[in-house]
């Protein structure tokens, strides 16, 4: 770092990332790297049927397999169930207990029935084959049609019509009259395929009892360590103090790891029972078929428009297939409640009605995968605008211009107040980039040659910085929201900062250090972050919903500012001046206006006084240099926004969708580290493209998952993901301490809608429109090559 750079703020700069050297050189430490003396290895006997009663389970042969140390079923371990709750009446929400190990009934292929512990992972795997389980099969419930049938088989006896959530949050008076009188009403019927978040590192845990601390140490890859501690202590009937959860380096999560899994609790129970460390690492087959899934949703929606293309009303029925159980702590309401509350998005919708339902089926349960329901409802609303533009003879971008929110703050029909954003500006800039690069001319020329090139857009907002009040509106019994940070300086002048967020690839070690270093005028190399340790971090809700910088970073900023105030107060006392006359900058503590050596102190010199020469401190200043702060968002949250523009070509011979150009114009407020923001955008867009064109978890007629390897679950590679052009706008947020809004999910939210719109634009000459993702080559091929009428 040059002398000129040393004086500039770190926030807003793409400084070298502090994690990179360790991770890129192979010195990262992940759960599977942990090796402890006497450690055993666990795997799980899993259900081979989608739905059935357990008639008998014999593990005696398992225990005789060479290398197997023990095998435990539910009754052997007596672990309490995991139950997620909403504070809603039974007519709106039905709670269902998720046993850590299934007892009387199985509800999906892959559900854990017993844990087998061996001297090594191979012995544990061998033991699985010796388990004998007899089932009385029941008809599987595999989708909306069978789940909601009048004579439906019930996945849970207490959930009539297999419905866990049924909520109508909004219904504007007179909305039916608005539709009746509208100039044009357009409808869409949109479905999205089930997906796997697919983090590079599968789930895993290492558990052992520490006799000296009288504490269970559970090392696991989770986005929510404090929630895992709470559930583990309750399931295992331990004081929460007696459970310590530590997260080492983590290779991705994307929401799949922001809920509490059953296997980590079972591994901990086995370690307590055996008095030895137990490791469980999920293999890829189980990760694809039996881990938390997401995305399978169905929207029936319609919108009313006037003659000028302005929207008059929006009406939607949302059904989300949540699989066999509610996830903890979010419950099965996470997807339908998100969609219902936020569907109007960036548009001025005067009237709104929505019904949101979560159904339970005999599939692996779902977790809030990156973006939750926003990629789906954005796709729905964007498809409505596309269809309205075609029927009204308007340009697809122009109809959006006439409807996006431009005056802020704006309170929508959904009772959400949106903070200032650049909705229109991002839309205009994105279109200008696509047009200036000549893609409209390319589309016209291609059509004359019989080629199919299409251009599609998606304009959307991303609600970030959910605070306690926002989550409380969902009636969650466990209400996430706030974060706590402690910033502590030692006698050398170096700083340790804690955060309740949990990085799984977002570069928190760098971005949080940037915030602290700026607040204290320190070299970033002197700031160290601690995260993911429930004994070192007071409390936190982890990382999800783009909350790390908005909420966690704000707590860090406030704590650092409080420590800075104490540093200035001590320096002022030593100089016999006022704290306002002291500044922290350039790695020094300086008296304003002074230019002599006696007008400068080092942080270490201040720390020496705070710790080693307390006799020099004024009576109103306590010894030590520690500051703590909490932060919560008490309004409706913050809103990042973006517009994505996509150019695709459809190949008649193969049905292949080739993305020729991808443009993203995003506004996440103040970008702490622009390179990290761009990485988040590109990674999110890759996942969004995956959902639009490639990835889908499917099941056969008896509920057996048919995509249990990468031969069947199609994941795009670098060959399929295009170069992404990213353009930044910046509307600082007034509700966070850093001015940041959050950037973790925007790429995933916008990509499916933009890609789908581009494909439909390319299909316009055929008269075919698609409203399902993923868009397969077979579907495109049929649209481009229709069979002749008989």
Automatic annotation (TrEMBL):
SMART domains assigned to the protein according to its UniProt record, in alphabetical order: Ald_Xan_dh_C
Transmembrane segments: none
Gene3D superfamilies tied to this protein: Aldehyde oxidase/xanthine dehydrogenase, a/b hammerhead, Aldehyde oxidase/xanthine dehydrogenase, molybdopterin binding domain
Keywords for the protein's UniProt record, in alphabetical order: Molybdenum, Oxidoreductase
Leader sequence segment: none
Residue intervals of the Aldehyde oxidase/xanthine dehydrogenase a/b hammerhead domain: 25-139
Top-level taxon in the UniProt lineage: Bacteria
Protein name, per record: Xanthine dehydrogenase family protein molybdopterin-binding subunit
């Amino acid at each position: 770092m040059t002398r000129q750079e040393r004086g500039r703020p770190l926030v807003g700069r793409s400084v070298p990332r502090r994690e990179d050297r360790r991770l890129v050189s192979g010195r990262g430490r992940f759960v599977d790297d942990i090796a402890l003396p006497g450690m055993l290895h666990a795997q799980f006997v899993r259900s081979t049927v989608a739905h059935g009663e357990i008639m008998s389970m014999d593990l005696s042969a398992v225990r005789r397999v060479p290398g197997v140390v023990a095998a435990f079923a539910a009754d052997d371990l007596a672990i309490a169930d995991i139950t997620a709750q909403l504070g809603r009446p039974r007519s709106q929400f039905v709670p269902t207990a998720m046993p850590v190990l299934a007892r009387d009934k199985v509800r999906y292929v892959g559900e854990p029935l017993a844990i087998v512990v061996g001297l090594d992972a191979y012995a544990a795997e061998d033991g699985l084959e010796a388990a004998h389980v007899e089932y009385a099969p029941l008809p599987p419930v595999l989708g909306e049609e069978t789940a909601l049938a009048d004579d439906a088989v019930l996945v849970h006896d207490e959930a009539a019509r297999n419905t866990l959530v049924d909520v109508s949050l909004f219904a504007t008076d007179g909305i039916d009259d608005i539709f009746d009188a509208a100039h044009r009403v357009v409808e869409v019927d949109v479905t999205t395929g089930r997906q796997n978040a697919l983090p590079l590192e599968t789930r895993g845990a290492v558990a052992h009892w520490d006799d000296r601390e009288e504490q269970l140490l559970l090392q696991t890859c989770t986005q929510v360590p404090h929630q895992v501690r709470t559930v583990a202590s309750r399931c295992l009937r331990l004081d929460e103090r007696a459970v310590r959860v530590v997260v080492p380096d983590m290779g991705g999560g994307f929401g799949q790891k922001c809920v509490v899994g059953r296997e980590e609790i079972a591994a901990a129970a086995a370690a307590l029972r055996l008095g030895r460390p137990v490791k469980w690492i999920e293999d890829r087959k189980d990760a694809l078929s039996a881990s938390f899934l997401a995305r399978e949703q169905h929207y029936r929606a319609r919108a009313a428009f006037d003659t000028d293309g302005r929207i008059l009303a929006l009406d939607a029925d949302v059904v989300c297939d949540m699989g066999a159980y509610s996830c903890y702590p979010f419950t099965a309401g996470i997807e339908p409640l998100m969609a219902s509350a936020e569907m109007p998005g960036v548009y001025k919708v005067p009237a709104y009605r929505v019904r949101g339902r979560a159904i339970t089926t005999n599939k692996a349960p779902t977790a809030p995968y990156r973006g939750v329901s926003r990629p789906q409802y954005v796709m729905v609303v964007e498809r409505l605008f596309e269809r309205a533009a075609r029927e009204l003879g308007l340009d697809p971008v122009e109809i959006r211009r006439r409807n996006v929110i431009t005056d802020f703050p704006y309170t929508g029909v959904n009772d959400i107040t949106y903070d200032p954003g650049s909705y229109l500006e991002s839309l205009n800039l994105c279109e200008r980039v696509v047009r200036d690069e000549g893609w409209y001319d390319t589309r016209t020329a291609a059509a004359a040659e019989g080629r199919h090139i299409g251009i599609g857009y998606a304009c959307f907002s991303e609600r970030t910085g959910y605070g306690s009040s926002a989550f409380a509106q969902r009636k969650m019994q466990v209400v996430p929201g706030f974060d706590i940070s402690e910033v502590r300086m030692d006698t050398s002048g170096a700083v340790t900062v804690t955060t309740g967020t949990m990085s799984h690839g977002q570069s928190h070690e760098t971005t949080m250090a940037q915030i602290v270093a700026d607040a204290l005028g320190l070299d970033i190399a002197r700031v160290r972050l601690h995260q993911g340790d429930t004994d070192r971090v007071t409390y936190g809700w982890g990382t999800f919903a783009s909350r790390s910088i908005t909420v966690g970073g704000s707590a860090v900023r406030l704590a650092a500012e409080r420590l800075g105030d104490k540093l200035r107060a001590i320096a002022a006392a030593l100089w016999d001046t006022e704290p306002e006359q002291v500044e922290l900058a350039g790695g020094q503590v300086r008296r304003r206006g002074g230019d002599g050596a006696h007008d400068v102190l080092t942080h270490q010199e201040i720390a020496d006084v705070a710790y080693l020469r307390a006799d020099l401190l004024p009576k109103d200043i306590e010894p030590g240099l520690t500051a703590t702060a909490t932060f919560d968002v008490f309004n409706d949250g913050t809103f990042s926004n973006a517009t994505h523009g996509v150019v695709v070509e459809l190949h008649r011979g193969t049905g292949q969708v080739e993305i020729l150009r991808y443009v993203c114009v995003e506004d996440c407020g103040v970008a702490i580290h622009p390179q990290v923001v761009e990485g988040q955008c590109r990674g999110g867009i890759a996942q969004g493209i995956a959902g639009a064109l490639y990835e889908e978890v499917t099941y056969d007629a008896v509920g057996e998952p048919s995509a249990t390897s990468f031969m069947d679950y199609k994941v795009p590679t670098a060959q399929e993901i295009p170069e992404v052009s990213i353009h930044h706008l910046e509307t600082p947020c007034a509700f966070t301490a850093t001015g940041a809004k959050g950037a973790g999910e925007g790429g995933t939210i916008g990509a499916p809608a933009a890609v789908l719109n581009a494909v439909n634009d390319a299909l316009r000459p055929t008269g075919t429109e698609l409203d399902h993702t993923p868009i397969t080559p077979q579907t495109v091929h049929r649209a481009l090559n229709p069979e002749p009428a008989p």
